[in-house]
Amino acid sequence: MPDPAAHADDTISARISPSCPAETQRILTAAWAHDVAAVKKLLDAPGRASVQDPTTGETPLHAAIRACGAPAEDDDPADLEAARQTVHELLLWGAIWNDVDDRNETPGCVAQRLGRVELYNLCVEAGVRAEMLFGVLEGYEELGSVGEDGEDGEDLEVVDVEAGAGAGAGADADMVVVSEEDGDEAPELVDVEGSGQNGAVQEDEAEAEAEQDQEQQLDGPRFQPPKDDTNADVNSEAYLRSKLTYSDGKLVDEDGNGVMMAWETDIMRQSVDALLPDKQPGKRILNIGFGMGIIDTMFAETKPACHHIIEAHPGVLEHIASPSSKFGSAWEESGPAPGAFKVYNGKWQDVCQELLQQGHTYDAIYFDTFGEDYSQLRMFFTEFIPGLLDGQGRFSFFNGLGADRRICYDVYTKVAELHLADAGLDVDWKVIDVDMSHLAEAGKGEWEGVKRRYWTLDSKRSAPLGFRLAADNLVEYRLPICTFLG
């Protein structure tokens, strides 16, 4: 399928259509001209920063970045600074960092395509703030839902403090989260930018929900592309009810969604090498999500003292129990001690509780589930890893977070790093060049027979700014290697 942005017409006449409403047109034009004063004047109500041309899908953020064009020798430093200020102002007012236009480009995608590194980084930073804020709001909503009398969840308080107090990574625009003075865990949002000019928080809860609806489903280790009129959403419960098919080096569900494929073999091999660098026998290993058994076969080759597998899908469990499987009852009985080699039947959320109660710890843990959102991965490494991972152990996961476009991948690299730090974990990202020569087009090559791809990053167009460029047909997969801090 041709890339609609490959030969894009980035002129103002092509991006702001004649049918665009006058009010929207004024904001888009001011953003395009990098007229900071006019932009500030026009952004006088919530939602104005994320208006869109009804024909092109152009937002003020798209316009401000697109107007810069590609870097050139005659670039005017003053105009570039005005562009940066315009982008900053729009983000301050709640511009949606991952809104897509009619070419399926986010503002960050435009900045990347044009080679505007500073503006791209502003979009990434905004994405990280937004995603961290959503995590805080979700936690607050859970606390606030207890009881009807309001005792267990009071209104979220917005507090003004002096400008320059220092913004935390967990808040959007220039907001930080602080604890209540009485020690309760319900958070407050604190405006650290100073709101004398606007007098209000720039992005209210309704706008946050709107942005959440626009997200590119940056949702699990195995990325779930956004649903549309022809694709129903994939979630854990639906996946566990679906019928799976093993064939031609791939595992797909009954709707043709790719669950796991043989192209991941090199990623799995390098993951094992990173988790068990010395390859010494006698290690304790936990793998969550069996799939095609690729990584478990590799783990078994290291002759572990303990090898536990958690799998919840009935179809996968049936496959494991089949005579052709290497991990059936005979494998379990071959362990060095009763229960040393075992496939646990059930959801990891339940099984891990059982393992914690039994006092199990592991030298290497790998996490690779399907149909779950990012909150579940985050819960695993904040609530379970501290108890299950040995003090000198290593943890990793299949990193398909936001793998439909580079900016989403970059945002979730940073978000995951922050949440891992919250769990007391340090992460080292090992960059792996993955051969995408057979994965370039939907429905062709290794994607033949797969309706929904869980990895769609291409090579040169998606190469991250500030990083080396992989060779043709290669993309850079970021393998997380996590150990306890200190």
TrEMBL record:
GO terms for molecular function: protein arginine N5-methyltransferase activity. One of its GO terms (cellular component) is cytoplasm. It comes from the Eukaryota. InterPro entries: Ankyrin_rpt-contain_sf, Arginine_N-MeTrfase_2, RMT2/GAMT_Mtase, RMT2_dom, SAM-dependent_MTases_sf. PROSITE patterns: SAM_RMT2. The keyword Metal-binding does not apply. Residues 230-486 form the RMT2 domain. Residues 180-236 are annotated as: Disordered. Residues 180-191, 202-216 have a biased composition (Acidic residues). This is Protein arginine N-methyltransferase 2. It comes from Thermothielavioides terrestris (strain ATCC 38088 / NRRL 8126).
